[in-house]
Amino acid sequence: MEKIIMTLAELEAEAMRFAGTLAPSPRGATLVTLSGELGAGKTAFTKAVASALGVGETVTSPTFVLEKIYALPPGKHFDRLIHIDAYRLESGADLAPLGFDELMRSETNLILLEWPEKVRDALPEPSVHISIIAEPDGSRTVSYG
Question: In Å, how far are 46, 57, 75, 137, 139 from 12, measured between CA atoms?
């Protein structure tokens, strides 16, 4: 599925709609990967998903800390939202110090991982892969796969 998003507000609304479609997997964590160039809107999308799930704290890009974990309020499908930015990683082996394998074992974890192409060799098949392309006119093309 592909959608054309004209504004940041529309991107946030789309991310909130998407968050409502997520459900835990009995096989472990729900992994959502987000691809796109710098500035495409991956972190903006993640912020909106976090907001839709009830994260009350400010969600920022974990580019330099690599991973941020947010507790979700009771009554949600997931207990934790884990936001990983793999931009600075060189291979999938760099996920190990983050406890990635352990995080993937819990069906109550929702993991949003930016820049999956950097660590593809260590990733299982994602539950959803999202690609965001910033178009020259300022719109964005969001594709789900």
Answer: 9, 17, 22, 18, 13
